[in-house]
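Checklist before submission:
- one chain only
- standard amino acids only
- sequence pasted in full

Submission:
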Amino acid sequence: MPATTVPAASSAPELRAHLAVPPTSSGPWPGVVVLHEAFGLTDDTRQQADRLAAAGFLALAPDLFTAGGALRCLRSTFSALLSGSGPVYGDIEAARTFLAGRADCTGKVGVIGFCMGGGFALMTAARGFDAAAPHYGALPKDPAAVLRGACPVVASYGRRDRALRGAAARLDAALTEAGVEHDVREYPDAGHSFMNRHNSGPLVVLERMAGLSYHQASAEDSWGRVLRFFQHHLATAPTTPA
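Returned file contents:
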């Protein structure tokens, strides 16, 4: 699991990150920025990036808490998520630019996120990405306005997620209103965090206390949709202007 750094970030001189490179051929490959949940850049997020690499995508998971750690950064990061502005957006753009500029990247870059990262995947879908895959991300106050001009979106929610009840239907309506190609699905047997599988330690205890859990059937179906969607929208290199 190779570590790297992303230069030209907003919150720090460079961001810590995990870079996952496809194991076959020499590229170039389409890129995907992987945005972590509120727990930070955990092994679970690294494994999500590795799975994308195994499917043929150059995946970069930046540590959005590089500047001061999770406890120090969490409040400001969630504030940025709600307001739509702040250094974290510069960090995400730095990650996108870093990937797109690599010789082994086609120049097309998608974004995928989980929980907090899912919210940022929605908020940045109209900010230079070619496809977005938010998972149980909170919706902006005016989703149709925020998503106007957005890239294609494939989104997943759990019906048992009480905090985001009805979010899938609202997002589907907002994307339709904004004229954005999309695939939004709500899984009836899944709750919040159904794509995340924390292997050990305090995160598992916290998840159980909060009623959060990995749901394999829903997670695997969602992964299938995401990979097909990304293959369709990212697999072809962008055309170069004459």
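Reviewer check: The first strand starts at residue 3 and ends at 7.
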